[in-house]
Design a protein that fits this description.
heterodimer; A: alpha/beta; 9-stranded parallel beta sheet; two-stranded antiparallel ribbon; 11 strands; 49% helix; globular; B: alpha/beta; 5 helices
């Protein structure tokens, strides 16, 4: 370029210069879309986002909480490192969970065996399937053993516990034995969001929708009275995103469900400012890094507006969008499994930049098996490294003000609101799910996502690019419960059933049935009583299925 | 491919994740086959009954959370019901170490993560042709 030419260009708009140079260097053009379908530009600048909106977005801890729900965020309190753990017998769980607490976990999460999710006791399930993916817990005794040495008044315990919330009942029985007041117990009823169980994954589906709906509000009312520090509601976007929903769809469906649950609580006579502060959310964090951050920032401010303006909650604590994030297993690969450590790290950073309150990082072998001790340790260490070494938490909401992130947050918000309007037009979440609308959208998105992988447009290292020839020796050893220990567990369960007071069991079940038959008694009160009287998990679920129906999960293929 | 295959796509055991089974059902349907699709958590007896009632050529079992461990029980139950000619294929998470047990039990193919649409469809069609050929031979032999 000559000196003259250079002088001539001084007056030219640098934006226009960049545009022409970009077009010159990339003449064929390129269209990149994120998982929610937004076209992503190569550059974001002032014309995409016009600058600070402190007044509209609020500072951290201020409505509408775009920048975080607490004034101090991670400077004041680290996120809960809540690793999902579930394996083997209660003794196996106990060993693993004490190890997790030693490695730095400050909260725990109990994942029961899939037989428990199905509402069965261990003597009703094939032995090879027991304890492979979760812990076999059917009684207060089992819970007591699983949480031996865990201080229930100091460690927050999340239970993966769909309606009728038998695990919480067993936890309360355990606390009572140990003389710990219920008011001191902290934690969350994960999987209380039964709507998500109907539309996706179906793992936690147990009772008819009407039955689940009734027990849900009974359990919320019970927790409000007896367990003031317990979060009875966890609304789960994870299942839908895992089943294929895009990040935008996931947030829209989850918030639509939250509106439904809030309305149900209100209809049950509960004051929203008593219950909304105990609403929590649970999401997958995918590897679509910026998209996830935008999803959570947008979700936070949409929920604040819904809670305040649409639902009319007065207490600012009701407006806070508290969420747990789990790094998404969908992005993990069986191929070259150690690569998953890099994926989980990326997802976890997205979660931290999103301002989550609690996090689970997947072990690198989770695409193949229930994690082993060593892989679980690395997953916890990943969080420790990100928190202690990487200085990610020095600044609150550090990506705020990025033209791209702010513009993406706005775009995400608009798309979430568009999908929520579709749900509302269909008559709300129950109607939309009943009509198959939600399942249809999830199925369509799952197929579209798979097509992109098939065509190679979406790259997955080790799957459709950078493949290597892997020997069988490289495959991680899958975790399997020790069959002898499991058989002993089943035998001692049978012995327990034979030796317990059959009168007490009959009386408790009678009371449970009466509560289910009435329209006003609190069913969960009787679930707690039944557990204390030695009624087993399978017996409680069976009684309630008889009374309230099993129904069918809503599947649209 | 000569005739559309009849394929039962289902899940046994306790897991409910159905992203994979729904995708594969859509693939088979789009390739012109007839898919009988069920909710998850089928008992083995129910799968055998459906295979008989629907006269299927192939049963596709989707597995994520160790439910493949009871697939050998399904193979035995099918044989006992006189439906040993129905081919069984498995898709999903089956650790390397546990594949031989399924193959020994008679599972015709295992599609792990990363299997392409074409690979799944072509393999199932090839197995379906085998099933039909074997049935034809039995019919000819009887005549």
């Amino acid at each position: 370029m000559s000196l003259d030419e250079r002088e001539q260009r001084v007056d030219v708009d640098p934006r226009r210069v960049w545009e022409s140079e970009y077009a010159r260097d990339l003449p064929e053009g390129d269209v990149i879309r994120n998982r929610s379908g937004f076209e992503i530009k190569p550059l974001y600048s002032e014309q995409d986002w016009t600058g600070s909106r402190d007044a509209a977005d609020g500072y951290p801890g201020q409505y509408p909480f775009t920048r975080g729900i607490y004034p101090t965020m991670y400077r004041g309190k680290r996120w809960s490192q809540r690793q999902l753990v579930g394996l083997g017998t209660p003794a196996d769980y106990n060993g693993r969970v004490l190890q997790m607490i030693d490695s730095g976990a400050n909260a725990i999460s109990l994942l029961p065996c899939n037989s428990v999710f199905r509402g069965l006791d261990c003597d009703q399930a094939p032995l090879p399937l027991l304890g492979t993916c979760g812990t076999v817990i059917n009684t207060v005794d089992h819970m007591d053993r699983a949480l031996d040495g865990v201080s229930l008044d100091r460690i927050s315990t999340a239970m993966n516990d769909p309606t009728p919330f038998t695990l919480l009942a067993f936890l309360l029985g355990t606390a009572k034995r140990r003389g710990i007041p219920a008011s001191a117990i902290t934690g969350t009823s994960n999987q209380s969001d039964y709507i998500s169980h109907y539309v996706a994954n179906h793992m936690f589906y147990r009772l008819s929708q009407t039955g689940a709906r009734r027990i849900f509000t009974d359990h919320v009312a019970y927790c409000r009275e007896i367990l003031p520090k317990w979060n009875p509601v966890s609304i789960v976007g994870q299942h839908m995103q895992q089943a294929g929903a895009t990040p935008a769809e996931t947030m829209a469906f989850t918030l639509s469900s939250a509106i439904q649950y809030a309305r149900d609580c209100e209809a049950a006579g509960l004051d929203l400012d008593d219950v909304l502060p105990r609403f929590t959310f649970f999401f997958d964090i995918s590897i679509s890094f910026f998209e996830e951050i935008a999803k959570f920032r947008a979700g936070r401010r949409i929920w604040a507006r819904i809670a305040r303006d649409q639902l009319g909650a007065k207490d600012p604590r009701s407006w806070r969008f508290k969420f747990h994030g789990q790094t998404s297993g969908v992005d993990l690969t069986v191929q070259q499994p150690l690569n998953n450590i890099a994926r989980v790290t990326t997802q976890a950073v997205a979660g931290i930049f999103s301002g989550l309150q609690s996090m689970h990082t997947d072990a690198y072998d989770e695409a193949i098996t229930c994690p082993t001790e060593e892989t679980a340790r690395i997953a916890v260490a990943t969080q420790n490294i990100l928190r202690e070494e990487a200085h990610l938490t020095d600044v609150i909401d550090p990506l705020a003000g990025s033209y791209y992130v702010e513009s993406l947050t706005d775009e995400m918000e608009a798309e979430i609101l568009r999908i929520m309007a579709l749900i509302e037009d269909a008559g709300g979440m129950y109607e939309a799910v009943g009509a198959g609308l939600v399942q249809h959208m999830i199925g369509k998105s799952a197929l579209a996502a798979q097509d992109l992988i098939e065509s190679g447009a979406e790259k997955i290292v080790g799957v459709n690019c950078y493949e290597t020839d892997e020997s069988e020796a490289a495959a991680p050893e899958p975790y399997r419960a020790d069959p002898e220990a499991m058989q002993q567990h089943v035998d001692s369960f049978r012995k327990f059933k034979a030796e317990r007071s059959s009168d007490a069991v009959r009386r408790a079940l009678d009371a449970l049935n009466r509560a289910a038959d009435s329209t006003s008694d609190n069913i969960f009160v009787e679930v707690v009583n039944s557990a204390e009287q030695g009624v087993t998990h399978g017996e409680i679920v069976e009684a309630l299925r008889d009374r309230l129906g099993f129904g069918h999960p809503l599947i649209v293929a | 491919m000569s005739m559309p295959l009849r394929v039962l796509v289902t899940k046994v055991g306790f897991d409910g994740h159905d992203r994979g089974s729904r995708l594969v059902s859509a693939y088979l349907r789009d390739a012109g086959h007839e898919v009988i699709y069920t909710a998850p958590w089928q008992e083995i007896e129910a799968v055998v009954r459906l295979a008989v009632d629907e006269d299927v050529d192939i049963i596709g079992i989707s597995t994520l959370a160790t439910d493949h461990l009871i697939v050998p029980d399904l193979m035995e139950a099918l044989a006992a019901a006189g439906k040993g000619d129905v081919a069984v294929v498995v898709g999903g998470i089956v650790p390397e170490q546990e594949r031989p047990a399924l193959i020994t039990a008679g599972v015709r193919a295992i599609f792990g993560p990363g299997s392409s649409r074409d690979e799944i469809i072509h393999t199932i069609e090839r197995i379906g042709d085998d099933v039909r050929d074997a049935r034809d031979r039995v019919l000819v032999g009887e005549a």
